[in-house]
Amino acid sequence: MTTATSRISYEIRSYFRAPDAVFFTFLFPIIMLALFSVAFADADQIRAVASSGRTISVDYATYYLPGLVATGILLSGTQSLGVDIATERSDGTLKRLGGTPLPVLSYFVGKIGMVLVTTIVQTALLLGIASLVFGVDLPTDASNWGVFAGVMVLGIATSCVLGIAISALPREGRRATATIVPIVLVLQFISGVYLPFTQLPDWLQNVASVFPLRWMASGMRSVFLPDAFASAEPGGAWHLALGTLVLVAWLVGGTVACALTFRWNRKDS
User: Please, which residues bridge with residue 47 across strands?
Assistant: First the structure.
């Protein structure tokens, strides 16, 4: 545990010393929220009809915030870890670590601890900017924050194991970004982050519902948006229980994939 703790500190320092990682993972959701909020500042608010028949509206900053919180989790876990580990495997870093007394578990704890810390800081900044700069009303109900914490913790765990597993795809570190980033980017567009989910074709909704980001975004929308906006979800409900099952399934499957695919050396070493 002492070694694992020191690895967390090392990984955090390395993360913030890489400008591309800071921009494309840490700052990306914050920049996107600012862009959407400014671009649609004069546009009509987004409306939904409550069960009572009353129309409820929110501004674009409020509407996009939940999806960008979920996106930040996926970027920090899946994209950041996938690219980072693939690069370390390609440049020989993992091979050198494999020749030291460093346990594999301590290596993983360092990576996952880095994701946990950076995601918490990123989310806190995102919520703070949304509230203080763009006037987004944050939830005041403790139950909503309980759902937020549950989705966030489960999302971080799932994203981390998927990042470790997907790092085995690029055969070279220089191809890691070109291999992993497009996958994450496509998931953002089909998971209801930038477009209303029910506006997508039914077959694309079904494809997106297989992947975890769709359920993380839906879970976050249940926290930050009024209940009336559940009508914009498939079936007119948030489906938190189903989303939890999907995330747990990916967590278990990703863990198995990590155990089967992770190695200190490249396949051709």
Answer: 57
Q: Per-residue pLDDT tens for 198-223? A: 889 999 999 999 999 999 999 999 99
Q: Are strands 46-49 and 55-58 parallel, antiparallel or unpaired?
A: antiparallel
Q: Check: CB of residue 193 under 8 Å from CB of residue 71.
A: yes
At residue 158, what is the residue type? T
User: DSSP letter string over the chain?
Assistant: -HHHHHHHHHHHHHHHT-HHHIIIIISHHHHHHHHHHHHTTTSPPEEEE-TTS-EEEE-HHHHHHHHHHHHHHHIIIIIHHHHHHHHHHHTTHHHHHHTSS--HHHHHHHHHHHHHHHHHHHHHHHHHHHHHTT-------HHHHHHHHHHHHHHHHHHHHHHHHHTTS-SSGGGHHHHHHHHHHHHHHHTTSSS-GGGS-HHHHHHHTTSHHHHHHHHHHHHHS-GGGGGGSGGGS--HHHHHHHHHHHHHHHHHHHHHH--SS-TT-
**Alpha-carbon dihedral sign for residues 191, 171, 177, 155:** positive
pTM here? 0.93
Task: Spell out the domain ranges in the chain.
Answer: 2-261
